[in-house]
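User: My collaborator sent over this chain with a note saying "see what the structure looks like." That's all I know about it. Can you take a look?
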Amino acid sequence: MDNNLDLTEAIAHIDPASLSYEGWLNVGMGLKEAGYPASVWDDWSRRDPRRYHPGECEAKYRSFKGAGDPITGGTVVKMAMDAGWRPGSDRDFALDWDSVITEREDNVVVDRNWLERREFQEPEGDAWHPGSELIRYLSTLFAPEEYVGYVTKVFSTGDGEKKPTRGYCDRTAGELIDLLNRHKDDIGAVLGDYDPEERAWIRFNPLDGKGVKNDNVTAYRYALVESDKMDLAEQNAMIRELELPVACLVYSGGKSVHAIVKIDAGSYEEYRRRVDFLYSVCEKNGMVIDKQNRNPSRLSRLPGAVRNGHKQFIIDTNIGKEGWDEWREWIDSVTDDLPDPENLSEVWDNMPALSPALIDGVLRQGHKLLLVGPSKAGKSFALIELCISIAEGVPWLGFACAQGRVLYVNLELDKASCLNRFRDVYRAMDIPPRHMDNLDIWNLRGKSLPMDKLAPKLIRRAMKKNYIAVVIDPIYKVLTGDENSADQMAKFCNQFDKVCTDLNCATIYCHHHSKGSQWGKQSMDRASGSGVFARDPDALLDLIELPVTEDTKRRAAPGADEVRLTNMTALRVEGTLREFPKFRPVNLWFDYPIHHLDAVGDLAQVKSGKKPKEAAEDDGAAMGDTLDMCFDVLGFDGEPVTVQKAAEYWGCSVKTVRRRFATGKERYTIDNNVIEEIGEN
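Assistant: Without extra context I'll predict from the sequence alone. Here is the result:
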């Protein structure tokens, strides 16, 4: 042991009430072996008034004769470190040349050395109202129509241990409150009589009224934080110092305080992750958590009951941060929970497997895809075709697709129109609907929410469906914030990450082109709004309309009538991909209600950025359109449009820029190398 360590500092972090008799003796033997007087052990032992007996420490001290393998002061240090103490944390000291400077451990926000104990008292006499205690608890945690689970009976196991029964779950919080108001403080008349020595319990999350398992939980609203390894006053203080978003703080009538913490998870998976994080923070700050309390259908102590002569009562309600998000934001602001860096050499020979492809050469499972295009490109039809291709395991626009379950979130069409459209597309694709059971449609027209509100609801409904893709169409219906704000759009796009991560599936959505001509732009610059839209997804597929002649249409659809020819749209698909090499542009036709590849090959002759001679407008109008597009793109953020910027945009000389803008002298002027708009045609 380091002889410079002060064991009185160490034992200050060990709660004698949390130790077994053997653990208590080990502290005494370690102190004696390190040369401390019995009075140190005696003063420390007084912190457990229930088991402390005057003179016992002195008598035991004299009986410690030593052994071949004695308990040392190092044992005491280890016990204190397990309780959260770190040597040297209680005092200032000088560093020598070999001292190691370490940062504070992530998520540690409470220094137990400075933790001020928070005592609380059991209510007595006229202050004790069992029925009111339970009414307050039910009113705080449940809506009147929600079913509540509770237990008032126990059963004996084979080894004689007594455990709570399954209990009851067939009454709502409102019904229980009405009965409690009628029977005043007679809880037994409402819940059934319980044995004060055997205790009574309640479940803190609402149930479906059919059972008490995790699957019967209807809202993953709360989690239980309990630690019976600390002094009660320390537990109370620690919960408050950590600013835990506690809905109800209950004394168990025993060695612990029960904190019913607001979790507000949208799914069971999210609940598990949040509880894991909650417990991790508590443990890092010195609370030894009872990890058996993780499950959402867990029992807690029922306020208003009596246990072995001690009352189970509410200490406080709605303390700490208002909710999970606020608490998590606070924790993140004062700590750092980022993962540690990984050394490449450690994983070089054991690389994690890449996610399999969902759309071959385009998108992996669990990643994000954005489809962008103009009006009349049939973006929604393309997404429906993709859903069918995934459900049936057939190619989409020439790309092979994995087969699996897919969810289409319809935000725009009424239910009948959407369902009929799926049937029409199925028939037009000439695919037998052998695997329709792989395709779910969530019709939300008139009921859609902002994406940050929709995402958790979507995740909860989709959690056990094993979807490999979720398609959201269109995103303008769920857009939050200003689409031209990079910061707000980054937060919006994070919701798609959440869906991907929580459901382990791909998220696919579409967006529209910006206003004006798209000729000459890169595919990732055509989407409307902030560039975040195009840069956030793992794959971007851009549809650009190709100008073609009537003869080209007739060759693609021989025998078609004039109405069909008029509605045919020639398109080119270009991709910006993060996970795969760039593919050759795909030329296709949107021939209502489906897209099909250009089998004739005429569309390959249409050059990107330049209209074919037989369909081009006159040179002056075409150049005017190009000028407008350049000015709109470069002046998008409100900054001056300079000649140099335009030259960089077009990849040409400054002289060429001046010559081009001279053709639009009715609308643009150049003054001191700044291009200014002076009017419109």
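A starting point for your reply to your collaborator: The two ends are 88 Å apart (CA to CA).
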